Amino acid sequence: MDRSDALWTLAEADRREAAAGGTATGHAGGFALSTQPVAAQTLVVTDTAGIEARMDAFACGGTPIPVYLAHPKAGGRCPVVVVVQEIFGLHEHIQDVCRRLAKEGYLALAPALYHRQGDVASLKTFDEIRPIVAKVPDAQVMADIDEALRFAAKAGPADTSRVGITGFCWGGRIVWLYAAHRPSIKAGVAWYGRLAGDRTASTPTQPIDVAAGLTVPVLGLYGGADAGIPVATVDEMRAALGAGSASRIHVYPEAPHAFFADYRPSYRDAEAKDGWQRMLAWFQANGLGKG
Q1: For this structure, is 226 an active site residue?
Q2: Is position 98 annotated as part of the catalytic site?
Q3: Cα 239 from Cα 236, distance rounded (Å)
Q4: N vs C: which end of the chain shows fewer Cβ within 10 Å?
């Protein structure tokens, strides 16, 4: 496969993911096969100078769950940010986000939230991946993140009185739901996460259902050119949040889905960098400062 073929494969993956509303994933520890040729040339890599970063594991309900953890080597106890995986799971890009946050003074951790349902590392199509992801119940995800935070308190210099959460695509939806599930956290930032859709036994609630009662301030970052999350749906979410909500949604008019994913052709440098700064400012403004 040459670079042009690889770009077409990723573009098609982006299209299918957007159409599915972010219902596919990958495997902890690497990129899905279809992403490897482009990722090798375009991935932003953050070094570990001044931070500690490692794969670890915690137990939830008797099951060991892999988790990637990164934090500063010095400086005392750190506010905690949970990073929730996107379409391809706990791969190198999500691990890099943890390292970036550690460089900013946070203890960041990303649990492998599909771990129980199956290994999708060798799968090549969304048709193969979707049945596995469809088995992942929201209740399990909430419990695993709860346990990940308990693990963080023991695994590094975590100040678990100051917790935030961020997530991408599939993980963006989870940010909204976790903010409703655990109102004691300080803030959330949801990157192009699905807001509405079918309700199933595994996914009985959508973000738009919890918007009115949300007390945790969540910043939503969305693309105006996202084929899977129309601006009309974003507007419905704003209306559901209500005028008095502490949450906000920012739309980048020309950005597609997955505009932060720097290993995919959907990446938009200006919007990604602006979104990152908005995220850091949001955490700072809502009690997750580094000091």
Answers
A1: yes
A2: no
A3: 5
A4: C
